[in-house]
Amino acid sequence: MNVILPEYMCFWYGEFPTNLETTIRNAEKHTFDGIVTPIANPLFSREFDNEKISEDHKVFTRPAMLVSQSRWNVNIIPKITDALDCDSSDDAVRKYSKKVLEQELKYAQHVRPYRSILVKLKSGNVLHLARIISRVINSSNIIVEVPLVDPATLKQKWMGDGGGDTGRMCGSDTWTWWNNFRMACDPSIHLSVALEINATPQEFPSWSNLRRWLGEPVRSLITPSYLYMKNDLSYYVLSDDYRIVFELLKKHSLNFMIKAAYIDDLDIRKFPEVVKFLTITHRVDTLRTANYDELVRACQPIRDEISNAIYSKMEDDPVKYRSYQNAISFAMLSKPQDSRVAILIVGAGRGALVRAVINAKRLTARQCKLYLVERNENAVFHLRALKKELWPDLDIDIVLGDIRDYMPPEQIDLIVSDLLGAFGDDCLYPECIYPTQKYAKPNAIYIPSKITSYLNPVMTTLHHYKAAKQGWSIYVGSPYEVYNIAEPEPVFEFSFPSPAVDSVEYEQHKRLLFKAEQNCVLHGFIGYFECILWEGEMISILPKTFTTGLMSWSPYYFPIDIPQYVKSSDTIELNFWRCATDTKMWYEWIINRPILCTIQNFQGLWWSADKR
After folding, report:
1. 303 against 32, higher pLDDT
2. Residue 423: how many CB atoms within 10 A of its CB?
3. Which runs of consecutive H residues, i.e. helices, occur in 57-120?
4. What DSSP character marks residue 473?
5. pLDDT tens-digit readout, 261-278
6. Is residue 507 within 8 Å of 423, Cβ to Cβ?
7. Do the beta carbons of residue 421 and residue 301 sit within 8 Å?
């Protein structure tokens, strides 16, 4: 069962229709995919205590047979009655609401088994509601409707505009409503958010407050029909003032719900254009990031052999190899023009990095001797074929083996390597490259010449759900559907060559402090790297210095098994270790503040990189 509805769908969100089939057909005329409708007639008052009246009131909604089962499955999202208050301070109201909610949930599951049900939050007092919803959370997908702004805030503002007290607003943070509900239910992949735009842009929360929704499973956006206006070309689009929310969530897999009391109230000429605008615009953004939120376990750089398909994907990155080519060219130009440059290429793969070296050689008109070292036997077959067919006149030696066991027949001028991981040093870059200094010339150049890893704390509900389901590990993740609690800070730095290579510390520790800007939930840390190839030529996946167009790496996700609630202005203290033995390397991390947790990935239990 999948919590995410089919992507790019648009629904009409309205009142209880008297004829479901007719309403669905009308919605389809407006190019909507379906409707969001109350599961029960809101004018129907149910009685549970009086036996005779209760018997009469068992028929509280339309018969399910009025539409086909496929209509229920695809074209209808049932909505729980808004007026219910399961957390009322009035015992009678609370008990009545509980019984009605249970009845409606049971019927919704009957007509639409294992599919979505919409439930609206009206406050942060949600414990009784969450308790009831928890009973069905594993057999239904619960879409939680949350207003962007607390209606109480809007009500007070309107009263103030009318001459009342315009002092401190009484409304609360609606993200807190959702968080209370989510935590009380026990966070589940079957919970998602439908965020309702219920205020003007002037009434929106602050930008830092809005950004928290980036880390939440927002799967639907509810917008009133009047927000869509004609642009200069006479096409209906979302009003520019409201685009901030749309742009904020454009990387989420969103469905759209257009709110209007009755389907006939909609302009039949207007909404085909609106639906087209929403779906096409959102599709452009999401297609560009296909599979971006998939979590893949970090690879074993030495143990795992790279397949032909992965090589093909890695090599389809012109930005990366153009950057390498520029750095190699600069390095060659620093050598005397009449000199012969001995170049060692570590991790030659199927030849993409070799081509960058050969291109640089031709651009600089330098004489070169190339030593290609690759441990993947299948990749070496490619290299030998390339040498025979494309590079027969070049002076190239191809070596099958581990760089740590290799000794070239001469001293090396230039060491070029392609062993960078998403965290910089996670593919054993220092362990593999520092030993080459024993046969490098004193003025040898290393490309890359410096790598720095970075970490920042994040709230990412989706990544946490997936990591918990797939098993705790270090994952190759993404910065989408992620709320960055604080800016990244540098962790480990390795420079090449090292002035004291015999005393290089492969085991390192760093203590990092981060300041939270908003109340949020800490789910772990995102890891990046920044790399100086040589003389200012840089490649980076760090957001602030990101190399435009770079595709070879996605950031790492370092999870924590138990999420922590973090308050605004709290300090997050992280201790992070790079650990190493003769046989493996791994990372460990522990949070000291705001709440002390256990050591994560202790002794490499979740993930480690084998050295052989």
Report:
1. 32
2. 27
3. 69-74, 91-111
4. -
5. 666 656 655 666 676 666
6. no
7. yes
Rounded to whole angstroms, the Cα distance separating 419 from 61 reads 63
Question: Is 31 in contact with 274 (CB distance < 8 Å)?
Answer: no
The first and second tokens of residue 538, run together, are 């840089």
The string of pLDDT tens digits covering residues 487-524 is 999 999 999 999 888 878 999 999 999 999 999 999 99
Quote the CA–CA distance of 52 and 153 in Å, as a whole number.
43
- Reading the block at residue 532, the tokens are 């100086």
Residues making up the binding site for S-adenosyl-L-methionine: 311, 320-321, 374
User: What are the structural domains, with CATH classification, of the chain?
Assistant: 10-290 (3.20.20.150), 313-411 (3.40.50.150), 450-610 (2.70.160.11)
Strands 10-13 and 34-38: parallel
Element (H, E) at 152: helix 151-161
Choose among 201, 153, 173: nearest CA to 568.
173
Strands 191-196 and 218-224, sheet pairing:
parallel
337-378 pLDDT per residue, tens = 889 999 999 999 999 999 999 999 999 999 999 999 999 999
Pairing of strands 412-417, 440-447: parallel
Q: Which two tokens stand for residue 307?
A: 């397949």
Q: Are 595 and 561 in contact (CB under 8 A)?
A: no
- Please tell me the distance from the alpha carbon of residue 209 to that of residue 537, in angstroms, as a whole number: 37
Q: Give dist(CA 180, CA 123) in Å, integer.
A: 10
Token pair 């939050």 is found at 121
Annotated binding site: 311, 320-321, 374
**3 state SS for 269-300:** CCHHHHHHHHHHHHHHHHHCCCCCCCCEECCC
Q: Which H/E stretch holds residue 423?
A: none
- 514: which 2 tokens? 């981060």
303, two tokens: 């143990």
